[in-house]
Amino acid sequence: MGILDYLIVVVYLIILIGMGVYLQKRASKSTESFFLGDKKMPWWALGASGMASNLDVSGTMIIAALIYALGVQGFFIEIRGGVVLILAFFMIFMGKWNRRAEVMTTAEWMEFRFGKGKQGEAARILAAIAQLIFAIWAITYFIQGAGIFLSEILGIPPDLAAILMISLCAFYAALSGLYGVVYTEVFQGGLILFVIIYVVSYVIINISLPETFVVSVPMGNGEFQQITQNLKDWSSFLPRWEMNVPGEYSQYNLIGLATIMYIFRSSIDGMSGSGGYMIQRFYAAKNEREVGLLSVFWIFLLSFRWPFIMSIAILGISYSQLGNVIDNPETVLPKVLIELFPVGIKGLLVAGLLAAAMSTYVAIVNSGAAYWVNDLYQRFIKPEATNKELILHSRIASVAIVILGLMSTYLFTSLNDVWGFLTMGFGVGLIVPQFIRWYWWRFNGYGYAGGIVIGMITAITIRFFFDDIAEMPSFYLTAAITFIGSVVVSYLFPATDESDLKEFYTRTRPFGFWGPVRKTLSDSFIAPIQSENRRDILATLFAVPWMLFLGITPMMVVTKQWVYTLICGSVLVILSVILYFLWYKHLSKEID
């Protein structure tokens, strides 16, 4: 990078630190201020913040690697998590269900669902511990990505690059809480959008791919192999049933079957309500209407990610055509940034991608700290803690999560290794009991706590003692053992108290197996709930493909495959019209 590039990055970092310092006082009023922004932040800010927090550098590097090597088929692999398909479920019903609880964290929600007795306490403690562990490993994933990205850009060792990045993130995450997270992410989101528009426009105007070209794939032993791709197959928006790719990516050769599995996995995740930094935006929303608005705005902004990643992959291929084939697909992003952009623009691109990395870090750190402060320290260790003590613990926990995440980086061999474990292993052990809690009245707090323990142990055992098991069987094995364990433990203990079940159902109004609870309520009360539930289920069936085509359509534009573009665009328009009548026209206008 040139002096101008470094100057742009330094100015960006100074602005970021200044915003953190400025928002410190507002975040220090209370834990609700620190973790939920007093529930006064506008929906557009929460939606823009969510977009920025999902556009992490680590994920972008992985997806760019998959699309560089496999084409649009890489999009279908990233339905496992990179597409963030769960937002379609939050947009239609899961966001408002969570908002109705009036809580600060998923762990606190457990006492709303299971009561404040022993089973509610058990569920809350295990939920908090599980989410803390997940936050630490998620930080591990992002640290590895930051190390690879910055080491390529700055020419320094990856460990040093990661330490520099996370030190700054820990500083302003600990300083300004959710206020800092959201408003710095709004600023970062604007910078990211500029970067995306510039790169996509440059590629559309200047680059067209040849009918055949060479890419490289990892062999899993530190070596790489070049393969030849055909443009028509590489840019096809329909998942092929089978591919023939060697090496590490051969686990995705049954891509049709894998796509079905990834959609199933993401649907279970979306219907489970998720947790962590994503759910925090919905808890912080002013009311149900703003939950819907922030969701659709979030999804719309996030769709810009896909033409950007496709553009990076095309730039990588174009660079390779000059006789410089990029061996490691995970370095395509920093490589094209260094080699193909002029001074000044390069600095803006680096600043924008740093913004993408840092926004995700601080969102995870802030939400993870909430589980320690709100669900463990204040609830069980020191209920009489003063506001000053709670804010201090919020900041200490933020720093601790970062340090533990850094220490865990040595447990994994690559970005795809960490991401696969989080989405298809450890994450599955968490989402199964989280799924059951919404839809089955007989599921109790002990079943949830037991399911979380069984799920975590199963996922960790498979990953570290049977690491030759591929993603797909790992997913099904972890899910099956966790589901059976959750149900068995639930039946070993009495059901949740009837009054707690009734309070949960009447406020949340979920669909599912709630027959015994519905029988205690009048038909006039149940009828509008069932009408809402039927409409939400139908709308979700259209929202999922709508979100997928919202990402695929602009990818087709960048590849200049105009027939594919017309088909995808037409489907997107039809789905948008259907959702307008099924969902948007019914969006609640009530102000809570």
Structure description:
There is one protein chain. The protein has one domain (3-586): Sodium/glucose cotransporter (Up-down Bundle). The protein is an all-alpha fold and 592 residues long. 74% of the residues lie in helices and 2% in strands. Strands 1-2 form a two-stranded antiparallel sheet. Helix 5 crosses helix 9 and helix 15 (305-320) crosses helix 16 (332-340). It has helices spanning 3-22, 24-27, 31-36, 43-54, 57-70, 73-77, 86-99, 106-114, 118-154, 158-206, 231-234, 255-272, 276-284, 288-302, 305-320, 332-340, 345-381, 387-407, 415-439, 445-465, 471-491, 498-508, 515-518, 523-559, 562-582, and strands at residues 212-218, 224-230. It starts with a helix and ends in a 10-residue tail after the last helix. The protein has 25 helices and 2 strands.
SSE inventory with pairings:
Blueprint lengths: L2 H20 L1 H4 L3 H6 L6 H12 L2 H14 L2 H5 L8 H14 L6 H9 L3 H37 L3 H49 L5 E7 L5 E7 H4 L20 H18 L3 H9 L3 H15 L2 H16 L11 H9 L4 H37 L5 H21 L7 H25 L5 H21 L5 H21 L6 H11 L6 H4 L4 H37 L2 H21 L10
Antiparallel strand pairs: 1-2
